[in-house]
Amino acid sequence: MKRLLPIALFTISLSASAVLPKEITRLLGKPGKLTSLYNGKPVQSEDGNTCEVLKSESSDNVIQINAGLSFTPSADLTNAKKESSANATIYTTTYSGKRPGGSECGNSIMTNFVQRVIVDKQSISLVKTFRCNIFERVAIIEKCTVL
Q1: For the CA atoms of 23, 28, 33, 35, what is the dihedral angle to 10 degrees?
Q2: How far apart are CA 14 and CA 19, in angstroms?
Q3: Which of 27-41, 56-70, 96-110 is predicted most confidently?
Q4: Please, is 7 exposed, middle or buried when counting C-beta atoms within 10 Å of its C-beta (0-12, 13-18, 19+)?
Q5: In this structure, which of 11, 74, 100, 122 has its CB flanked by the most CB atoms within 10 Å?
Q6: pTM: predicted TM-score of the whole model, two decimal places
Q7: Is domain 20-146 given the CATH code 2.40.128 in the classification?
Q8: Pairing outcome for strands 81-84 and 74-76
Q9: Which residues contact 59 (CB under 8 A, 6 or more apart)?
Q10: Three-class SS of residue 23?
Q11: Is the confidence at residue 14, as pLDDT, over 70?
Q12: Domain coordinates in residue numbering, the chain
């Protein structure tokens, strides 16, 4: 019985870490260059930083882009809808944009929130689109391209 316990624990830990899709896991932990866009324009203080895509320590389904930013862009792929094309795989998450203290718009009204994770051969992009106060369209893209 004592010999079976380590084998069982090893099997459980492997299946728990195999949650993320292989197109994402092959890019995890590799150094890259960050592209940071707000409504199509580079964010000067962030664009060009070094980055790496990591699996969150708090959940096997969450990826994050570590780039030394004041916040860590992340996406929870739990129950995400997957679409594939010849060049990329797109995951549309179930994240609503709401968070403690308000939403992605602060205290303003937020509508039409969508978060996507776009994965191609060399990069992972976290893309958020939404409207604040109904009229202001916002698109935030954080992309880590593996070098």
Answers
A1: 60
A2: 9
A3: 27-41
A4: exposed
A5: 74
A6: 0.82
A7: yes
A8: unpaired
A9: 76, 78
A10: helix
A11: no
A12: 20-146
